[in-house]
Amino acid sequence: MSLVRMTKYRTLVLATIGFNFSFLIWFSFAPFTGPMAEEFGLQLAEIGVLASAAIWLAPFGRILTGWLSDKFGAPAVFAIVLAYVGVFSMASAFAQSYTVFFIERLIVATAGITFVIGIQHVSEWFEEDELGTAEGIYAGIGNAGAAGGALILPRVFPTGWNGPLFSTNWRAAFFYTGVVSIGLAIVYYALGEAAKTEDKRQATKESASFKGWFHTATRYGTIVLALAYVMTFGLELSMNGWLATYYREGFNTESLVLASTFAATFSVAAGLLRPIGGYVSDVLARNERNILPIFTGRYREQWTFVSLCFVVLTMFGMTLAGLSGRVLVAVAAGFLVGMGCAFSEGAIFAQVPAMFPDSSGSVAGVVGGVGTVGGIIYPLVYAAPFLANLHLGYSIVAMSMIPIVLLAAWVFQPRIARVANEAGIVGSSPAPGAVASDDD
After folding, report:
1. Rounded distance, CA 200 to CA 196, Å?
2. How far is the C-alpha of 302 from the C-alpha of 439, rounded, in Å?
3. What is the Cα–Cα distance from 254 to 272, expressed in whole angstroms?
4. Contact of 33 with 245, CB cutoff 8 Å
5. Which residue has the higher pLDDT, 357 or 323?
6. Can you give the residue ranges of every domain in the chain?
7. Of 103, 373, 405, 438, which is the most buried if we count CB atoms within 10 A?
8. Does pTM top 0.70 for this prediction?
């Protein structure tokens, strides 16, 4: 029993605060890549590897914790993750060898797996017609924690820091954010309740079997949304870890604070605009409004497809803006990329719990876990030594997204979309054309 009587709105606030801080601590290294590179003797390509490494454990971690949240309830799982992340963040502040530091930060980076825990927690409290908006608020404000890290940490822990315990700013930042993480773990465990009703909790718990997980993981809907999340949330992760370096190295921006501020404009767009993506999906579904006649009757799918196309176009625009040589044009282009990510992610996670109401944690784990792969691969493209300049990587990434958009176009066809939560690549399931032709 919680210390405070929880409501759906209090649960939303609790989950959002927990995830916002998780995102801040996840990317707390990004504003300090310069001084860390200097202390450990890192080259630009090695910074790209560090940005990529922040995502390495997220795919498996999200898949596992999504299922665990269904099985054991979100509050316990969220608290455990926040607690060990805090311990290793504090430990990384004392690392003297880069190898030890790298391993400790890998573990801290698993803070990102809390996303699917919170998605599951919120979906256990809200009705279907509010899911897009609620999940959008949760994920949007939560994702903005990366912007908070970029804006707040370099100012709280500036160059020349000489405070209690540490004379190095990034070491102090890692230690004190770890302390806060442990405190939040205690609060989440004490206040959180797993579901709105005991019946809802039991229905979710009973669906959390390996057989049930495998079935939902191999449905067409899960697969296409997971790949769409690669090109949206995976992209967001990669940009959060890379843009401060890009604005510093690509435009000779000397000030650490200024480069981090430029990077934060992307994170603000990608985070705070995400609720709009979920809200638009809810409105289109409630009002049964078509905005893309080729997918008539599939209202959420139409909005998701439009937003995915926008992401591809803005990534090509990022290269053109960079080649202009004007940093403010590149910052504006980055803001538009962040906007595209926000709308797409909100749309995708409006579909996930609506499609699988009793397995939202498991499906969110697959979609969220697979989606992080983009955050591993894309930074390696941005920092690839064979590129003529730092601006071309964005167009290469954009071209890699086109097959995903084409797959989405196939799955979002009404005759397939109607059974996308049942038809899959393996196992017994209805054929795409086996359902009556009436739309929902």
Report:
1. 7
2. 14
3. 28
4. yes
5. 323
6. 8-417
7. 373
8. yes
